Amino acid sequence: MMKQFGKIVALCAVVAMTVVLLGQDASATTQNLYWQKQTTGKTAFWTLNSNGKLQNRTKDSGWYWVDDNSIGTAWRADLIDTNTSDYQGSTTHLLYHNTSNGKVAFWRLNTNGQLRNRTQGQGWDFVSDQTMSTDWSMKQILSPAEITGSNTGNASMSRLLWFRSSNGKVAYWNLNSNGSLQNRTQDSGWGWVDDTQTLTDWRYIQAIDTQK
Questions:
Q1: Which of 42, 51, 82, 165 has the smallest number of CB atoms closer than 10 Å to its CB?
Q2: What pTM does this model have?
Q3: Residue 56: count of CB within 10 angstroms of its CB
Q4: 127-158 burial, b if ≥16 CB within 10 A, otherwise e?
Q5: What is the pLDDT of residues 131-151, one digit of tens each?
Q6: What is the pLDDT of residues 56-83, one digit of tens each?
Q7: Per DSSP, which regions of the chain are E strands?
Q8: Torsion of the alpha carbons at 41, 46, 47 and 49, rounded to the nearest 10
Q9: If you ran DSSP here, which 8-state letter would residue 195 be given?
Q10: pLDDT < 70 stretches in the chain
């Protein structure tokens, strides 16, 4: 009975909140575990001790709001890019994907892990404001060091990997250091990892740097 009850509690937690990703705070001694509430779109983070456990359950001590404004259910926080050095001074971007139209935006986070402000061009901006098919999903951010044999010609550029669920194809976007898509030209701003395979029964896991 206890086992069944535990399963129910776990299921409820998953339905209500989605884990985004781990991010490092400015002190580099703790990690932040980011969450998004599916019913409102609000995002928060837990501060973890060096042993991986939640510091405490007190607001503004053990957990914090990234921003407590409701943004709706279409915008999904999927990834964190810690390789940015944009003109606003933010080194961490929280990437959002709009599941209804495919647009991609990012929030600039302060060193305390919270949204800088709610003004476009300052606290947030678009990676790309073009609509795209909703069967594409963001899967991973590769740092410049992880892009082995990159042809981007820019060592400060990150790469955003995409997976298309309808046919299993994988593509990438080259991101400028300010977090925006470099351009919309194939093999310059974006490209195919492979566009010849149809892998509908395969699931993307992760890309790793094999040169480490």
A1: 51
A2: 0.80
A3: 12
A4: bbeeeeeeebbbbbbbeeebbeeeebeeeebb
A5: 999 999 999 998 877 775 545
A6: 999 999 999 999 999 999 999 999 988 7
A7: 17-24, 31-37, 43-48, 63-67, 75-81, 92-98, 104-109, 124-128, 136-142, 158-164, 170-175, 190-194
A8: -150
A9: S
A10: 1-30, 85-90, 148-156, 211-212
- The C-alpha angle with vertex 79 and arms to 19 and 45, in degrees rounded to 5, equals 45
Give the whole-angstrom CA distance, residue 1 versus residue 153. 59
Do 19 and 76 touch, CB atoms closer than 8 A? Answer: no
C-beta neighbour count of 123 within 10 angstroms: 17
What per-residue confidence (pLDDT) applies to 5? 29
24 φ/ψ angles, rounded to the nearest 5 degrees: -90, 140
Does residue 186 contact residue 155 with C-beta atoms inside 8 Å?
no
